[in-house]
Design brief:
Helix content: 10-25%
Order of helices and strands: EEEHEEEHEHEEEHEHE
Distance between the termini: 21 Å
Number of domains: 1
Largest sheet: 12 strands, mixed
Strand content: 35-45%
Number of helices: 5
Number of strands: 12
Shape: globular
Length: about 220
Amino acid sequence: MSSRAFIDSINFKNCTFENILDDGFIIEDVKTIGVFNPDRWREEFGKKTTRNMTEAKIIHTANGSVIPLKRHSANQSIQIIEFAGISGYTEKSKLLKDVLFELKEKLNDSHIHRIDIAIDMEKIPRSIINELLEKRTPFQYGNTTYFKTCKEKKTNQHIDIKHYNKALTDNLSYPLERLEFCFKGQYFQKIKFKDIETLFNKMQKGIKRFSGLSVEIQSL
C-alpha cells in the first residue's frame, strides 16, 4: 500500500515573471541596480540574501501572500519564482496555494526548477529512518534532520532529504512528522509546469530507492 505524498513547494524558472503579473500584484525591489535592502528579505522570508543573488524582489499579492523572485549569478538571464509551503496546515499555506492556482495557466509554459515532496505521518516509522541511515549521514539543524551522502555538502543540486516535527513548525495541537524530498535543478530536464505529472513516476521511484517507502504523489 502506498502512502500519499504532496507537493509542498515548487519553483519555476523563466526569462521574466513580471510580465505575467497584473495590477493585483506589487513588486518590491530588494536587491537590484541601485537598491539593496537585505533586512526586508530577512523580514519576509526569515533568511539572508546570498552573494550569488544578482537580483532579489518580493511579490506582494492581493490576498497578502509574499513570494520570492530572484536571479542568480550563474545564469542571470533566468528568473526564479518560489511557491514554498503550499501543503502546510496554516492559513498562510492556503493563501499561497490560492495564488498558485490563480497563476497556473500563466505559469504552464515555465520550466520547473525545484519540487519538494512531503509525506506526513503521526510518526515516521523507525524502519524508514533506518533505511535512510544505511545510505546517508544525519545532520541536525534546529528542528530538522538532513540526510546527506558523503559527497554532499550543505547544499547540492540534485536532492535533499529531511525529517522534522511538522506539528512544531505549524503550531498544531496534534502530533505530526514530515519526511520531505527536495528534488532540485539537475533532476529536471526542461520539464514545463503543464507536464508536471510526467515527473511523478520518476520521483516516486527515487523516494522508494532512498527510503524504502512507496508513495503516490497527489496532483495539485
